[in-house]
Amino acid sequence: MNVKKIAIVASVLSIVGGTLVSCTNTSPNDSTTNSVNTYTATNTATQEREVKLRSVGVTVGDLGNPFFVLMGQGAEKEAKKIGGSDVRVTVVSSGYDLNQQFNQIENFVAANTDVIILNAADSRGIQPAVEKARRAGTVVIAVDTAVDAEVDATVTTNNLQAGEVACQYIADRLKGKGSVVIVNGPPVNSVIQRVDGCQKVLSKYPDIKILSKDQNAEGSRDGGLRVMSDLLTTFPKIDAVFAINDPSGVGVDLAASQAKRKEFFIVGVDGAPEAIEAIASQDSLYAATATQNPRGMTQTAVQVGNDILHGKKPKSPTILIPVKLITRDNVSTFQGW
Which of 43, 57, 136, 188 is the most exposed place for a label (fewest CB within 10 A)? Predict the structure, then answer.
């Protein structure tokens, strides 16, 4: 065989090899609704790859929110536990800006990041960025909220359950009768599911009226203050408020204090320290919160991503973490984040 033929054969083998590598990260999107508490991986037919976790990129909604700070810490701790101190972990905030998150994912891909941990700014809009990352061979794990795209796995709180337990508490405390406000949030699946769970419960009580459910407080304290200030002007009497997360719920509490309104109580989601402190106080309107585990979510996500790098897929592409309702009755025993 002459030199020219050898070069042609080598080129063909290179193309075939590259094609095989580019197909290794495909897996179905989340399709199960069963709640599980632990993560289990299974070996695929592919031989476990001789690879090492070198880099993890984390993009979250808002690093001004302690919840997302802890998610970043959880990812970094687990990545270094798996791959050692040399593992590069980059944590960035999208500010719930879709274009910014697009750029962040592109930067992760350009830096040859092994695993991207994605807390989507927009569950549907982020799809092209996810697809591009996975075509490049990057493992993408959605956390905290599912996305409308094919990711390698999704690790999230059981957000439907969070809305259900929070609003069952509201219905029980109101004895099935009263006026409720839902302080909504960004258009991501986790928020949508919490609101769906809440409405599912409240729909069983014909004497409970939902006064408002579409106001986006952007998941922030300032947003909760802004939205609730307007709602307090609109509605002279409110019996209960369901806030989609604790920062917006704390903003609701502040709005009530400024307006000198005390006729309602507040239930949120997260288990954030400031909400726990408010629940423990006898003077606060904050009554309960459905807890999440921000560190646990990203630690599990890194475990899943590392296993996928080694050719092991999770038994289920969706890992749901159950919630627990914290009220004044059990707040003293809550360990916190």
Answer: 43
- In the predicted model, is pLDDT for residue 19 greater than 50? no
CA atoms within 13 A on the CB side of 334: 26
What is this structure's pTM? Answer: 0.80
| Cross-strand pairs, 115 | 56, 139
Reported as a single tens digit per residue, the pLDDT across 189-215 is 999 999 999 999 999 999 999 999 999
Phi, psi of 326, deg, nearest 5: -105, 125
Phi, psi at 41, each rounded to 5°: -110, 155
Burial of 210 from C-beta contacts in 10 A (0-12 / 13-18 / 19+): middle
Sequence-distant (≥ 6) Cβ neighbours of residue 150 within 8 angstroms:
26, 27, 28, 29, 130, 131, 134
How far is 139 from 87, CA to CA, in rounded Å? 16
Q: CA–CA separation, 214 vs 236, rounded Å?
A: 19
- Residues whose CB falls within 8 Å of the CB of residue 30, separated by 6 or more in sequence, listed in order: 142, 146, 151, 153, 154, 317, 318
In whole angstroms, what is the distance from residue 192 CA to residue 198 CA?
Answer: 10
Listed in sequence order, the DSSP H helices in the chain are 3-22, 66-83, 98-110, 127-135, 159-173, 189-202, 221-234, 246-259, 273-280, 294-309
96: left (phi over 0), alpha (psi -120 to 50) or beta: left
- CB 116, CB 141: distance < 8 Å: yes
- The neighbour count for residue 141, using CB atoms within 10 Å, is 28
133 C-beta neighbours (distance < 10 Å), count:
23
